[in-house]
Amino acid sequence: MQVKICGLSDVGNIQVAAREGARYIGFVFFEKSPRNVSFEQAAKLALNVPLGVAKVALTVNATDDFLDRLTAKVPLDMLQLHGSESPARVAEIRNRHGLPVMKAVAIASAEDLPNIAKYEAVADQILVEAKPPKNAILPGGNGQPFDWQLISGRTWQKPWMLAGGLTMDNVAAAIRQTGASQVDLSSGVESAPGVKDPALIKAFIEAAGVVG
After folding, report:
1. H-helix or E-strand containing 11?
2. Could you give the CA distance from residue 195 to residue 208 in angstroms, rounded to a whole number?
3. Largest CB tally within 10 Å, which of 20, 144, 163, 178?
4. Architecture of domain 2-207
């Protein structure tokens, strides 16, 4: 089981997450998010991510100029595209920057499932996320799960990660129902929007079955 803790913005919580066994650390580059960090902040934080833990940049419909500056200033291992990027745009970003790309696919009903295959054809990994509520400001990190039964038993073409409303109380059930081997969360380990709680990080990773 591999865990990604997203939206980290301080050294202490990065160290807690890594020590407890998280395999991915996510930095958010989206100004509307309470978890947003600057390139300068992220560059400093990245220096505190241990070897073997992937540094992931979450962006939302980012331009080439934005991504060029981001990848020039912050040492990264993966780009996470969390907007409405088309499959063609995903392929373009992957080719331009030479980094693995994870594409978030929002799910609310069976009608959304064909999008997974479209992005599996061009992305290195898929992140299956709950579709945000109507009028939501954020495309993710809203603490909302989706119906896990929708992807139960699916045959996947690429590595994938389960996200959306996960907490230490429901992650074990989510893993059992979906067969996920990777999980991602942000708001589920926060004491307030954008404020990570080290005790919750530790409890979540333990609940996911990770041995630190």
Report:
1. helix 11-20
2. 21
3. 163
4. Alpha-Beta Barrel (3.20)
% of residues, the chain, pLDDT over 90: 90
- 3-state class (DSSP) for residue 32: coil
Q: Coil, strand, or helix at residue 99? A: coil
pLDDT of residue 144: 73
Residues in CB range of 114: below 8 A, 6 or more apart? none
Quickly state the pLDDT bin for 156 (edges 50, 70, 90): very high
**Res 137: pLDDT:** 58
3-class DSSP state for residue 151?
Answer: helix
Quick one: 164 exposed, middle or buried, by C-beta within 10 A (0-12, 13-18, 19+)?
buried
Mean pLDDT in residue range 61-75: 98
Beta partners for residue 106, in sequence order: 129
Picking from 186, 52, 78, 172, the residue whose alpha carbon sits closest to that of residue 129 is 186
Question: What sign results for the dihedral spanned by CA atoms 157, 107, 2, 7?
Answer: positive
Nearest CA among 38, 30, 31 for reference residue 9? 38
* Gap between the Cα atoms of 66 and 47, Å rounded: 21
Q: Measured between alpha carbons, how far apart are the two ends of the chain, in Å?
A: 11
Strands (E), the chain: 2-5, 24-29, 54-59, 78-81, 101-107, 125-130, 160-162, 182-185, 190-192, 195-196
Quick one: pLDDT band at residue 212, thresholds 50, 70, 90? Answer: very low
